[in-house]
């Protein structure tokens, strides 16, 4: 529905207008058939009415603040837009790492910090140090589970090798390469950077 700005500085739908003692019905503000836009704007401007056009805000309400509306007069239209979009500041819950965006001037709860979790899901907040530290126990358990998954995924190749040997067939795989791979997986917890960083061995190509 078309909106209008009136001489009393209010904005709204078409309504009755009294100008210089003469009453103009709401229908007078409607653009007439075959009437050009320029002629329509000029006609209602005479009685102190300006058509309003809203420019849609295209920002992200979760991460941005649109700011106060700005009004500009363009080609007879009162254009209302939000050109002063600002980014909100990300804060993280110290207990859950949950992300929250805060607009300028808003109060930030003490349970949140602007420091991004350093170790993603394995970050735990150290209140004394005032920083995120690595939850080594949980990270180590996860990496060991990943190691076990990789071993289980390749175990069938050893079983195939054993079956081929029993049947007197030429083995598909080089058992030495598989043994080396499996031993490298067993040695993952012994890597210098474990569990903060892990270098996963490459599985031998499956012929």
Automatic annotation (TrEMBL):
Pfam families, sorted: Phage_tail_APC
Annotated Phage tail assembly chaperone-like domain residues: 141-205
Protein's UniProt name: Phage tail assembly chaperone
Species of origin: Pseudodesulfovibrio karagichevae
